[in-house]
Amino acid sequence: MANTTPSQQTYLPGTHPDLPPPVSTSGVIGWARSRLFSSPLNIILTLLCAGFLWIIIPPLLTWGLFDAVWQADSRKDCWAQMDVPEGGACWAFITDRFRVFIYGFYPEGERWRVNLSFVLFVIAALYALYDRMPARRYGLWYCLAFPFLVGWLLFGGLGLTPVETNDFGGILLTMVLGVTAIAFSLPIGIVLALGRRSTMPVLRIVCVLFIEFIRGVPLIALLFVASTMLNYFLPPGTFFDLLIRVLIIMTLFASAYAAEVVRGGLQGIPRGQYEAADAMGLTYWKTHRLIILPQALKISIPGFINTFIGTFKDTTLVLIIGMMDPLGIGRSALADAEWAGLAREMYLFIALFFFICCFSMSRYSLHLEKKLDTGH
Amino acid sequence: MNEPNTYKPSIDSKDSIISITGMHKWFGDFHVLKNIELEVGRSERIVICGPSGSGKSTLIRCINRLEEHQRGKIVVDGTELTNDLKHIEVVRSEVGIVFQQFNLFPHLTVLENLTLALVWVRKTPKAEAEEAAMRYLERVKIPEQSAKFPSQLSGGQQQRVAIARALCMNPKIMLFDEPTSALDPEMIKEVLDVMIELAESGMTMLVVTHEMGFATAVAHRVIFMDGGEIIEQNSPVDFFENPKHDRTKLFLSQILHH
Question: N or C: which terminal CB in chain A sees fewer CB atoms within 10 Å?
Fold first, then answer.
C-alpha cells in the first residue's frame, strides 16, 4: 500500500490507523499561521505590534546598553564619556551606590553577616521549595531554625556586635521585611482560615474580626500605627524596636490576606472528602493535615503568589515612616549634587530588582502547580 | 397511615449487630427520618430502596454518625451512638462506608488511599499496611493500579478502590450509599461482582441501591422507604412479587417498567 496520500486511502471499518496531523496545523508554520496570521484583523495587529517593537526596542538598547556608561565619578564625568551627552544611561550612578543599595547603612566591618545570611537564605529557600534536595528531612528542620539563626546574625547580641535596626536599609531591609512577612503569613493564615470555618463561635468571631479589620485598613495606616502608636497599646515598660513593630504589622497584614486565600481553597474541597476522612476515624487535625490542606493549599497557590508578590512590593511603603528601603536609598542618592537628575537609571534599577524577585515567585508557582497536578 | 409490618426477620434480637429504636432526625425544620425501628442481624444483608428524598441515605449515614440523630437510640455492636466522641470512634472503626461519589483522596495514590487510615488511625507499620492494602486490592481485582492516582482510573475501578479502602479497616459492617448510581452502565457489573463476593464472605451489609437484580440475588431483606418512614420490608422474593403497600407497588412499577 505505497499510497503517498494516506488521507485518500480507504480502510475497512475498525482498521483505520492514527495518522500524523496535516503539516499546516503543526510546527512553526502552523503556529505562525494560527496565532499570528489567522485573519485580516490578526494580520493587521501582528504587523502593528511588530512595528511598535521595531520603534521601541533599538533606541532602548542603545540607551541602556550600547551607549551606557558603567564607571564614572559623577554625572558630569558620565556625560563627558558619551558621544552625545545624556544619550545613554549613566549606570555608573548605580555602580557607585551599589553597596548602599544592598546593605543600607549596615556597618562596613559587619557586612559579612549580611552575606552569610543571604547564603543561609538561599539554602533554606532551596530546601523549602524543592523536594529533591539531599537530606531533606534535616533541611526542613534547618528551615525552622533559619529565622532565629538569621535574626541573631543580623541583629547581633550573644557574642556578635549588636547592630542598630536604623542601620538596616536597601535590599537587605526589603528582604528582611518581605521574607519574614511571607514566611510567617502562611502558617498564621492557615490557622486564621481554619478558625474562620470553625464551629466554635468565639474562635470564629475572633478570626473574622481580625481578618476583616486588617483587610479593611490601609497598610500605610497600620504602618503609622506601628511607628507612632503601638507602644501606647503595649504594657508600660515593653519596648519594641521600630523594625520589629513593622515586621509584626506586615506579617499580620499578609496573614489576613493569606487566610482568605486559604479559605477560598478550603471551600473548593467537596464535602465528601471530609465525610470519607470522618468515616475512617481520622481526627480533625489529621483530616486537615493529611486530606484537606494538601488539596486546599494546592488550589490556593495562584492566590498565595498573588498576595506574596503584593506583600513583597508593599515593603516599599516603609519609606513613608522613614525607613530606608531601596526606594528610600534611591531618593536620598538623587539628592546628592554629584548625581542629581539620574532618576531614570535609579528607578529602572529598583524596578528591575523587584521584577526579578516577583517574576521568580511567579515562575516557581507555575512549576509547583505543574508538579502537584494529579489530574483532578 | 402506615400498615403494621407483617414481615418479621428471622433474627434473635440478642444477635443483632445494629439496633435502631424510635429514631428521628430533622434537617432544620424538615423531619427527614420518622420513628425508625430497625434490627440488623450479624451477616445479614439488607437492601434499602425508595424514591429520592425518602431518607434512605440519611438512615445509613446515621449508623456511622456522618449524620446525627436527634431522638431515639442507635446501638452498633453494643456501642450506643451519643455525642461521646469515644463511642463514635469505636463505631466508626467497625463500620465501613462506600459513597456514591467514591470520595477517594485525589492527591494520594491508590495505595496511599488504602494505607492512610491504617497508618494514621490504627498505627500499623507502613510495610504491614501496604501488604494489607495490596491484599484488598487483589480482592477487588485491581492490584496493578496501586501506583496510579484516582483520576487515572475509570469510575468502576475508583469505586472498587473505595470498597477496598473501607475493607482495609477490617469492618464488621459495610454501608453502601448508592454505590453504582454514578457509574456508566458497563461499569456497574464489576462493582456489583465485588459486592456479591463480599456478601458471600459473610459481611453484614446495608446497601442503598436500585439494582433490583442485586437485591434479589444477595439480599436477605429489602426495605422500602418513603417520606422518612420504613413503609414495608420483606424478603426479596415476597417484596418484588407481592408488595403490600400501594406506595411500594407504585415505586416498583416505576422502576421496573421503564
Answer: N
